[in-house]
């Protein structure tokens, strides 16, 4: 698995999502909450809306437009209108660096 640095740990506020644009048009939301750091695809599966503009609570990120919330660990929606999960990505911390893997192993 290949990891890329997306930000430093001190750039992340508690429960305050940070949008990071990676190559190929991929945008992810980095979230620090409950002592952990998560990476989730930044686009809501219900509408083309940035999840990083939503609120974080109870290890979920809520879409600001229609209110669907997605589990930060699994990407699964907790209720309508979203019915499809969004991708989540492995995160590791090295010193103050937040690293995310967006590649699939063969």
TrEMBL record:
GO terms for molecular function: 2 iron, 2 sulfur cluster binding; dioxygenase activity; metal ion binding; monooxygenase activity; oxidoreductase activity, acting on paired donors, with incorporation or reduction of molecular oxygen. It comes from the Bacteria. InterPro entries: Rieske_2Fe-2S, Rieske_2Fe-2S_sf. Gene3D superfamilies: Rieske [2Fe-2S] iron-sulphur domain. Keywords: 2Fe-2S, Dioxygenase, Iron, Iron-sulfur, Metal-binding, Oxidoreductase. It holds the Pfam family Rieske. Residues 4-100 form the Rieske domain. This is 3-phenylpropionate/trans-cinnamate dioxygenase ferredoxin subunit.
